[in-house]
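PROTEIN ENTRY
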Amino acid sequence: MRIGIDFDNTIVRYDHVFAAEARTRGLIDQDFLGTKTEIRDHIRTLSDGETKWQRLQGRVYGALMADAELIDGVGDFLTEGRKRNFDIFIVSHKTQFGHHDPDRVDLRQQAKTWMEVHGFFDPSGYGLDPGNVFFAPTRAEKVARIEALGCTHFIDDLVEVFAEPDFPDEVRRALFHPADNPPEGSFEVFRTWQDITDDFLGASR
């Protein structure tokens, strides 16, 4: 098995970081409760909302990256995959710098530093090869990388990735979607990483 995994909102959770920073900027009310997606949808309804959202994204994925959390179950999946000597890759659609970020924080380096802190590359941790982490400036280039790596499986939180016209037909598509009302399409939906671990690795136990 050659398993590719998206990074933002698939491996790492930002909901609480987005909420805190959006409140600080006055983009949501102090009592607003919602996920990153719900915060995004709300901000986009504001005047010049898309620009405000992109600025917020740049701040969260950059200077505030250290506040993000590993999503429950990812660590167990990486540990089990390593035991079975599966090839695991992280393939992320991430520009080097955030849109409208005056500080020009390197988003890719911030992501790598976060992974280092959380033991992704530590032989006594998850033992992921740093050379197996890839960033693509566009979604199309992300899909091209997935194909070039020969992934047999890919896990992502965005339906749009699987809907790309050049997404390889032979790759098993796993949508990580913990929220209610999962979308339908040419992919399998998993609400938790435990479900992914049981499905992907269960046959090998």
The helical segments are 15-24, 36-43, 49-61, 74-83, 107-117, 139-148, 159-162, 193-201.
